[in-house]
Amino acid sequence: MNEIFLKIDGRKVQAKEGITVLQAAQSIGINIPTLCHHEKLEAYGACRICTVEAEIGGRPRLIAACVYPVEENLVVRTRSAKVDRTRRVILEELLAHAPDSVQLQALAQEYGADKNRFEKEPSFCVLCGLCVRYCAEIKKNNAVGFSDRGAKREISFIPEIASGSCWDCKECFPLCPTSYLQAAYVLIEALAK
Ligand code: SF4
Ligand code: FES
Question: In percent, how much of the chain has pLDDT > 90?
Answer without folding.
Answer: 80
